[in-house]
Amino acid sequence: MWIDTHCHLDAAEFDADRDAMVARARAAGVTQIVIPAVDVHNLARVRELAHEHGFTYALGIHPLYVMNAKPGDLDRVAEALEQHKDDERLVAVGEIGLDFFVPGLDPDIQQHFYVEQLKLAKRAGLPVLLHVRRSADKLLAGLRRVGFAHGGIAHAFNGSEQQARAFIDLGFKLGFGGTLTFERSLQIRRLAATVPETALVMETDAPDIPPHWLYKTAEQRGAEPGQARNEPSELPRIAESLAQLRGWTAEHTASVTSANARAALPKL
Question: Domain spanning 2-264 has what CATH number?
């Protein structure tokens, strides 16, 4: 059975057929999904969906949303973490992190929200779901600065082997998804093939990061909106790429990555 460690189940792209999509995921063998929040406006929604469908969730503010965050939003995250601290379905703080790829995002504001949310996670005793995009070294520096020892998942990891090792040494697992299916994703595929097997977890980031068989060019997406949507039922087929790279069976891949997910997020 499979665990999708990162899926934005609350996304508007799923509004028309969310229940059917969940049914497809279960039919494909995806038994657990982690639903991360992205800002204070969906803290309640991800929790509701986790309870409605028997999944799990994380609470936090995504780096792409911090520019519109208000001064009291960190307090709202802290209040939600305290209010739901005994909720068995609350498994992490996230999605938090740093994004130095998207233009126009103030790095100082991002850094402030990242470090403060690390402190909230440390106080709550929860692991974190980290957004890593051209920011691995700064994220690692923040973890060391805060003295964060609860680990978590470096989501959609695309750093160097040295950075991968640094995250692993700090107790993190590395999330792999749709980009594994592209033969030109040389660095990601190399990492997936060579990092210790105890470091690997699977994710879709649905509705984003579609695998190659769903990918559309910008022109195609404009002409056919919604046609490049990823969803959790794709996870077993995505994982075939990992199995091929490692020389594993599908059953072994599911067993290893699910065990790693439970190690990264103990409340799973």
Answer: 3.20.20.140
Model confidence pLDDT, tens digit, residues 136-181: 999 999 999 999 999 999 999 999 999 999 999 999 999 999 999 9
Q: Which of 11, 93, 107 is nearest to 63 (CA)?
A: 107
| CA–CA separation, 223 and 137 (whole Å) | 39
pLDDT tens-place string over residues 14-62: 999 999 999 999 999 999 999 999 999 999 999 999 999 999 999 999 9
pTM of this prediction? 0.96
- The torsion angle over the Cα atoms of residues 55, 177, 27 and 57, rounded to 10 degrees, is 10
Tokens encoding 43: 């803290």
Tens of pLDDT, residue by residue over 184-198, are: 999 999 999 999 999
